[in-house]
Specification:
Number of helices of chain A: 8
Number of helices of chain B: 15
Helix content of chain B: 40-55%
Largest interface: A-B, 46 and 56 residues
Shape of chain A: extended
Largest sheet of chain B: 3 strands, antiparallel
Number of domains of chain B: 1
Distance between the termini of chain B: 9 Å
Order of helices and strands of chain A: HHHHEEHEHEEHEH
Strand content of chain B: 5-15%
Largest sheet of chain A: 2 strands, antiparallel
Structural class of chain A: alpha+beta
Bound molecules: iron/sulfur cluster
Order of helices and strands of chain B: HEEEHHHHHHHHHEHHHHEH
Distance between the termini of chain A: 111 Å
Strand order of the largest sheet of chain B: 1-2-3
Number of strands of chain B: 5
Shape of chain B: globular
Oligomer: heterodimer
Chain lengths: 258, 306
């Protein structure tokens, strides 16, 4: 038998063949399962707009690589704000979220949810709850907001924990009555934590102010924009040195321009 | 009447009720205890363990984290904080000592579900079972980690029915029990021990740990085996028994070394001849079959098989 090996093509070893076939089959099965899982994963990475992450949650995609869905943040939230997503809730299964209109975040000074997180999905670098960016409030319905119709509701303004920083009331002329003012609630994204107290408190059946996730109400300027005034501040001097000399175009010398 | 429908009957006649159900009862107590640790807080306000099996904090000091979940996180390129890493190290060390897949039979909340399906299968005499290779689960472990790496998410945790079921119980998120119900139907109607024995990547991971673990079952008195096959009928991973039990013919030692063994002790319970014992992997002793063992009377056996 051994002597024949060189002369004749080796007869296929049935055991080896079977092993290879099995491995290919199992590998194929695992591949199909893996593809299905990957498809599902990519689909469920989108967070529904009305579901917000706890304070300190690391940036959207990072969160799903870090959160192990233990719910320790949920347990330590004294207000019952946070919930773990069930299979049909919208956010990725098992991840913590809150719905501002149900129970908003009360912005605890000690941020117990962040302290409880064992994995770093909630970033312990967040030590001042005022710096939290769970989302940003937006007047989503100018047509129904009572203040924008010239009435005085002010509820969102008054409940805001960052009153006069995150929401201010800006007066404008009331064109309808021609003699009153409109007290428009204006959100300042640089101070809004996204706690959702305003959305919760809005007296309308459907809130006219809603907290949207940062992916929707984007907070950062496109990186390719350079604002001249910022660049000037950074440089500490005007960026264009040569004083602009514009030709004086005058139809007639000495005539006043309108 | 097939003996395999009542695989504990002979043992009960020979050893009595307690000796023939000892490990079953202890396992159910352990499973209940692990749930109660998490439930005492939300139900009666006494907090012992917070969190879930994915990651927990017990008595405010002991962090525990599932190493397989953490592995997915690392594959997804997140380096976890020290608390989670320490928790995973503690869990890993525990299972390196205490049996690897003992997680499956003593802790996992899915186990009573699959045990119920297996029991019903025996009782209803359902013998048809789809042929799925048990090795598939190891391929699935690799697939799950690869998907985590490719998508940057803890991929399996999106569908993991094990942790979802635990969340369903502990957090009252009942929709998350869907997976457990599907597993029950799959195990009952499609494949015997289908989920735990063929698919579950969590069990497969702990099986990997189990291939080096200290705590093992050994067929110490294998010479007393009379081939009644009761152990094979109750074992969730019957393929692990043969090498150790039939080792006389092949020169293999009596310890069940396969990582697939869940250290559930069902074989110890069900064996009328007291062949199996719980011991450690280096205990390769072979004891002679006990002299007091009497051949059972067919009459006594008949009495317990309705
Ligand atoms: S800051 Fe307080 S209220 Fe807000 S989510 Fe965290 S624990 Fe809950
Ligand atoms: S504590 Fe951290 S890891 Fe646990 S559910 Fe909350 S965010 Fe996720
Ligand atoms: S979400 Fe509303 S209440 Fe909360 S900080 Fe922003 S504006 Fe204020």
């Amino acid at each position: 038998m051994k002597d024949n090996v060189r002369q004749q093509p080796k007869p296929p070893d049935p055991a080896r063949r079977k092993a290879l076939r099995d491995a290919a089959r199992l590998g194929g099965g695992a591949l199909v399962a893996g593809m299905a899982l990957a498809g599902h994963a990519l689909q469920s990475s989108a967070l529904p707009a009305q579901n917000l992450r706890p304070p300190g949650a690391i940036a959207a995609d990072g969160f799903l690589s870090a959160c192990v869905r233990c719910g320790l943040c949920v347990r330590d939230c004294p207000y019952g704000t946070l919930k773990l997503a069930g299979w049909s809730d919208g956010p990725a299964t098992g991840t913590p979220f809150f719905t501002a209109r149900d129970v908003p975040c009360e912005m605890c000074d000690t941020i117990p949810c962040v302290k409880a997180c064992p994995t770093g999905a909630l970033d312990k670098a967040l030590t001042d709850i005022g710096e939290a960016r769970m989302g940003v409030a937006v007047i989503t319905s100018r047509e129904t907001c009572l203040n924008l119709q010239g009435l005085r509701c002010d509820v969102c303004y008054r409940v805001c924990p960052a009153i006069d920083k995150a929401i201010t009331l800006e007066t404008t002329h009331n064109a309808r009555t021609a003699k009153h003012a409109v007290f428009e609630p204006v959100v300042h994204a640089d101070a809004c934590t996204g706690c959702g107290k305003c959305e919760k408190a809005c007296v309308l059946d459907e809130a006219a102010i809603k907290v949207l996730p940062l992916q929707i109400a984007a907070l950062s300027q496109d990186s390719h924009y350079r604002r001249g005034w910022d660049e000037k501040d950074k440089a500490g001097a005007p960026l264009v040195y040569a004083p602009l000399k514009l030709d004086v175009r005058k139809p007639q010398a000495g005539a006043d321009l309108p | 009447m097939s003996a395999n429908r009542f695989p504990y009957a002979a043992a009960q006649v020979r050893k009595g009720l307690w000796q023939s159900r000892r490990f079953l009862v202890l396992r159910r107590l352990a499973q209940a205890a692990f749930l109660l640790l998490f439930l005492s807080g939300p139900v009666v306000g006494i907090w012992i363990s917070k969190g879930t099996l994915a990651s927990s904090l017990t008595l405010g000091v002991l962090p525990l984290t599932d190493p397989f979940i953490l592995l997915q996180s690392v594959a997804a390129r997140h380096w976890p904080e020290a608390t989670a890493l320490a928790g995973a190290a503690i869990v890993l060390t525990t299972y390196l000592l205490a049996g690897g897949r003992s997680y499956c039979s003593w802790v996992c909340p899915i186990n009573p579900v699959t045990d119920l399906a297996a029991w019903l299968r025996r009782r209803l005499g359902i013998t048809q079972s789809s042929k799925i290779r048990p090795e598939l689960r190891y391929y699935l472990v690799i697939a799950v980690l690869a998907v985590s790496a490719a998508t940057g998410m803890l991929a399996f945790e999106l569908v993991n029915p094990v942790t979802a079921f635990h969340r369903a119980i502990v957090y009252g998120a009942w929709t998350s029990a869907t997976g457990a119900i599907l597993i029950f139907a799959f195990d009952l109607l499609v494949a015997k021990n289908g989920w735990c024995g063929h698919l579950c990547p969590v069990g497969a991971f702990y099986g990997g740990v189990g291939s080096a673990t200290l705590l093992r079952v050994s067929a110490t008195r294998r010479d007393a085996c009379d081939d009644c096959m009761d152990c094979f009928a109750v074992c969730p991973e019957p393929q692990v028994i043969s090498p150790a039990l039939r080792g006389n013919r092949t020169g293999v030692g009596p310890v069940i070394l396969s990582g697939d063994c869940t250290v559930c002790g069902a074989c110890i319970d069900a064996c009328p001849e007291r062949v199996f014992t719980l011991t450690h992997r280096f205990d390769t002793r072979l004891l002679p079959c006990s002299a007091t063992s009497q051949p059972e009377t067919p009459a006594a056996y008949e009495r317990t098989t309705p």
